[in-house]
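Pinned message: reference record for Hydrolase
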Amino acid sequence: MTTRTRTESVDTPAGEARITWHPVPAGTAARLVLAVSHGAGGGIEARDLVALAAALPAHGVTVALVEQPWRVAGKKVAAAPKVLDEGWRGLWPALAAPGLPVVAGGRSAGARVACRTAAELGAAGVLALAIPLHPPGRPEKSRAGELTGAGLPTLVVQGGRDPFGRPAEFPPPTAQAPYELVEVPFGDHGFAVPKKADLSQDEALAVITGAVAAWLAGLSPRRARSGE
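Predicted structure (tokens):
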């Protein structure tokens, strides 16, 4: 099912950001907004973001694909984490403007931004796609504190062979830091799967969209209404 997309430019303290809106189709009630940003090595054309934007509107979820100011400006290198957070904070009012609960999300560096800022912004939850738990080959440089410190219902979707952190490397969730983790078998950091894998690329993407749709449907009504 296709949806009518629209693009919105938003001024932030870090520069001009851009939101591409994928609204729910006519006749479907919108329940919430899922705002997802890209990583440091690519844009909103990432396969997982494209798949979510195509699949979720039919489930009552408006998907907002966010391009950070550095990407809009055509720069090749991502901004520093502090600047990424400033850009995300600056565009949050536009994400909340439809009057729906907003789930903060992103892939890779975008997932780190969402984890760091979601609670202060009043997000209804956090979606972390391919979050870089540590630099490749440097497990001692763990960034687990960003994930466990999110303080909100969180879903992590991680490739089974992601060099930035395989699912088995993640700390166990606790009552103070609850999160759910879904593994995409054979997936790398971009959720690409080898041609000889036991599932196809389309099947791998279906794991992502199915898990995210189910998790969003399970957010508590109170939290989904208020973001509290």
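Pinned by admin. Summary line: The CA atoms of residues 34 and 63 lie 5 Å apart.
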